Structure prediction request, 325 residues.
Amino acid sequence: MRWPAVVITGGAGFLGSHLCERFLAEGYDVYCVDNFLTGVVANVEHLMASDRFRLIRADVSQHLVLPGAMDAVLHFASPASPTDYLRLPIDTLRVGSNGTFNALELAKEKGARFVLASTSETYGDPLVHPQPETYWGNVNPVGPRGVYDEAKRFAEAMTTAFRRACGVDTAILRIFNTFGPRMRPFDGRAIPTFIRQALLGEPITVSGDGTQTRSICYVDDLVEGIFRVLNSDFSGPINLGNPHEISMLALAQWIKELAGSDSEIAFVPRPEDDPKIRRPDITLAQTRLGWTPKTPIEDGLRYTIAWFQEHSQLWTDSKLARTSL
Ligand code: NAD
Prediction:
């Protein structure tokens, strides 16, 4: 008998590293494939001692060939924060297109179940609220964020084509904003930015008037949802996220308070095409998978702030952090 084997592309990133941990704990052989475009070895270093964990440096947009039997391919490789995909537009489009194609080909060859990490960004600046899976979205293909949103929409179409035309067992996840330990302090997403600024006593920069909302999910809850999707026969698309919706200003104030910071709140211009509202309708995940996020947001924020405090050597020297993270 052999262990079940899972390939996790983007496994050295924020979400990927938590997935590697979970699948190892569940008894899988884990093949973590990453080119370290935005991920770091430090995220998975603690897993290296396991002989069921393999770290493979490869660009999945170029090729993805692995020997042996595989039961699942989780395709998580992609720049994910606006700062990253705006500076890496071509890499983002390539990993959503060529990378997804290569990952699907691998799943087809191995007879493995394939799970695509798609995103709530496929809904764009939504005209329907909250967003159910049946909503087709409101995306500007030629706006700056189009490189990410359209890459993921294309990846969804490709995944569906492999299911329909080749019979590959696939699932599409539409992941909403998720946070937790191992986010990079300079990745530009609101929560790590606010925490870094609060801990350093710098102004906490809220864009626009801060009334725009996001719904934020703690990483452990998301990982549980992904695990359930993999072990179901559900093809999706399926929303995974926490419907707890909060304005950016309220989030900044909350983080400031939890971090015991006396930072001031500073208002900066809103990025182009920044969505005004965002909240998942998770009825499908609740009814089909019995999944619902359990971690109170305040607990999740406390864990994340504590992790940033414990790892301050990675980022308090901002010059070092910007080059090494
Ligand atoms: P991340 O940047 O921390 O991780 C992405 C990983 O993919 C990194 O380790 C990076 O080095 C790797 N990668 C990128 N291009 C690659 C390539 N061509 N070949 C091999 N590896 C490559 O981002 P994350 O937040 O962990 O996001 C992971 C996935 O989940 C992404 O696909 C993202 O679109 C999706 N997602 C994340 C969120 C969220 O809130 N974190 C929300 C929606 C969707």
About this structure: The chain has a mean pLDDT of 94. The pocket of nicotinamide-adenine-dinucleotide is lined by residues 9-10, 12-16, 33-39, 59-61, 76-80, 84, 95, 99, 117, 119, 175, 177-178 (CB under 6 Å). Residues 5-182+216-243+277-294 form a domain with the Rossmann fold fold (CATH 3.40.50.720). The first strand starts at residue 5 and ends at 9.
